[in-house]
Design goal:
Bound molecules: 1-deoxynojirimycin
Strand order of the largest sheet: 12-11-10-6-3-2-14-13
Number of strands: 22
Oligomer: single chain
Largest sheet: 8 strands, parallel
Number of helices: 15
């Protein structure tokens, strides 16, 4: 497994005294993970962009099933499927019209059953996405709410309110949608309501709340009928055999009493302000990065009661089913409240995702994450990319490695592709060496960059439209995957069609161009996952390597018998003699002396056997 780019004249393995001394354990770990999700590597499949089975240019469930061998070979433990339910696709399926059916775009319920069975046959668990904060405006409940009068039980399932101002012409409060624009839409008065257009003869009536697009009305979670319905939805998928749920906007379902005004801003990539350019941005002691959404619409204490109820539902089923919170909440101690023993099982660690590529803040966020989760007995999760953020291979190639824009336009400063990929591989290897559970986003195992030159007329993300084009939005990280370098559409499907255009550079990243190629991003991920499993790193420990505990360039930690060392500085790091390189994110350097020493180049992570 050792990868050296010059001919070594002697083995890099030595049996001298332990070359690294470590400080006190920051995290002891569960020893063995009693439940599968505590140390799992979970791979996010974004169905419309993973693989197309029927040739319409949009990925689908049969397409996913046809690629399960890729995921098994990669070595992931579980797959999280973004929504594939019936939906008008105004927010790529996060606008659900029927929670118990598959959208024809993606296949059928039978296709889902087949996917689940085939995944389980390969030892891969399946987590599905649950979108409880809002429905689609095409959901039967919202259609019934519009058809019914003010004050009806149908309207009580959503957040309808009278407007402010003499004639109710002002929205009930000043909240803004996360996608831009107001969070309220007004409808006409009385039964048979429609969104107000300003047409002559229209009588304006109530307003409804939507934290996201106007086609995504928020549900009223103080209504017991809503709670009962979602417990039934959970049971529907649990009965089918799913292994868990990723819960969308888990911090948003309960709003503060009285819906008070709020003057803060909200955004998908909250806290877009980065550290000062060219300097170490530092980090507060609690690991906060500005990734938390706050305000009276988020992280209200009332949400926890919902998760306690869901925990009880899951506990009725065998097999350690899991709930994963998508909650943009900080500080980490506050996020940990979602994973208390009787609530959810995991929460995405967006503080980690949004930490700059800088040693001190990374150490801080790693330690704070472990500390906060240890307090409640939950595993820490780690994540670098998903379908809502600029892919980390591009994010880390920006001139300021702390920046996190909501998409990148062709006219924006462009990421350095080579540097970004190098750092992305190093960041991923650092992440996968940490104890806890790691999330991968489809295509990161290929090193895929963001598409930063999409023409505006192909964009679909509502964030682009609702900000009047001020934000590029998330389409650039949702490009259909390249499977074959020499095929139309890079082998995405049988017709060569793709719902978003792929950049020509994707030929270099295609799965078939990397499979079996030593040192490719794909093979490096594969080696890392196999080593992580063999060394039981997911259920392991963490102590900082003392020599680097305060380093501005190096993050170095020990997890069980493995030292993970990331060099973020500009100079190579010379390893002490007596180390064996197990995995390297890029080739290490070995001099040609009689007693050669290994050097870890800039922006490279290595896993070393600590002898
Ligand atoms: C979070 C999802 O990840 C995102 O894609 C979606 O737009 C919003 N929640 C609204 O459901």
């Amino acid at each position: 497994m050792t990868r050296i780019d010059s001919t070594p004249t002697a083995s890099t393995t030595a049996t001298a005294t332990a070359p690294f001394s470590t400080g006190a354990l920051v995290h002891t770990g569960p020893g063995e993970a009693p439940e599968w999700w505590r140390d799992a590597v979970i791979y996010q499949v974004y169905p419309r962009s993973f693989a197309d089975g029927d040739g319409d240019g949009v990925g689908d469930l049969p397409g996913i099933t046809s690629k399960l061998d890729h995921l098994a070979e990669l070595g992931v433990d579980a797959v999280w499927l973004s929504p594939f339910y019936r939906s008008p696709q105004k927010d790529a399926g996060y606008d659900v019209a029927d929670y118990r059916d598959v959208d024809p775009l993606f296949g059928t319920l039978a296709d889902f059953d087949e996917l689940l069975a085939q995944a389980h046959a390969r030892g891969i668990r399946i987590i599905v996405d649950l979108v409880p904060n809002h429905t689609s405006d095409q959901h039967a409940w919202f259609q019934a709410a519009l058809a019914a009068p003010e004050g009806s039980v149908e309207r009580a399932r959503y957040v309808f309110r009278e407007g402010e101002g003499e004639h109710g012409e002002l929205p009930p409060n000043n909240w803004q949608s996360i996608f831009g624009g107001p969070a309220w839409t007004r409808v006409t008065a009385g039964p048979g309501a429609r969104p107000v257009t300003g047409a002559e003869g229209e009588t304006p009536g109530q307003w409804y709340l939507h934290l996201f697009d106007s086609t995504q009305p928020d549900l009223a979670w103080d209504n017991p009928e809503v709670r009962e319905e979602f417990e039934q939805v959970l049971r529907f998928w649990l009965d089918k055999g799913v292994d868990g749920f990723r819960v969308d906007v888990a911090h948003g379902m309960i709003k503060a009493d009285g819906l008070p005004d709020w003057d803060g801003t909200v955004s998908m990539v909250e806290g877009t302000e980065a550290g000062e350019e060219g300097t170490d941005p530092g980090a507060p002691e609690d690991g906060s990065t500005g990734a938390g959404n706050s305000g009276p619409m988020f992280d209200q204490d009332g949400v926890h009661e919902i998760y306690r109820a869901w925990h009880r539902v899951l506990a009725e089923y065998d097999g350690d089913r899991a709930l994963v919170a998508e909650a943009w909440v900080e500080p980490l101690s506050r996020l940990a409240r979602y994973v208390r023993p009787d609530e959810m099982h995991q929460a995405f660690n967006f503080s980690f995702l949004t930490t700059a590529w800088s040693a001190a803040p990374l150490r801080t966020v790693i330690a704070s994450s472990l500390r906060a989760n240890d307090e409640v007995g939950a595993p820490t999760t780690w994540v670098l990319s998903n379908h809502d953020v600029v892919r980390h291979a591009s994010r880390l190639g920006l001139a300021d490695p702390g920046l996190r824009p909501n998409g990148i336009f062709a006219h924006d400063p462009q990421p350095d592709e080579e540097l970004g990929l190098r750092r992305a591989r190093a960041a991923s290897l650092l992440m996968l060496g940490l104890p806890g559970s790691s999330y991968l986003y489809q295509g990161e195992e290929l090193g895929l960059p963001e598409h930063t030159a999409l023409p505006d007329d192909v964009r679909e993300d509502p964030a682009f439209f609702r900000t009047q084009g001020a934000e590029a939005g998330r389409d650039g990280c949702r490009i259909p995957l390249p499977w074959r370098a020499d095929a139309d559409g890079f082998g995405f499907g049988p017709s060569g069609k793709t719902w978003l255009p792929q950049p020509a550079s994707y030929a270099r990243y295609a799965a078939d161009a990397q499979r079996g190629v030593e040192g490719s991003t794909y093979e490096t991920y594969r080696t890392a996952l196999a080593t992580r499993r063999a060394e039981r790193l997911g259920s392991g420990t963490l102590a900082w390597v003392e020599d680097y505990a305060d380093s501005v360039d190096v993050v170095a930690l020990r997890n069980r018998d493995v030292v993970v060392l990331a060099n973020l500085g500009t100079e190579p790091v010379v390893l002490p003699r007596g180390t064996e390189v197990l995995v390297a994110s890029d080739p290490v350097l070995t001099d040609r002396s009689a007693d050669p020493q290994v050097r870890v180049p800039s922006d490279t992570t290595v896993w070393l056997r600590a002898l």
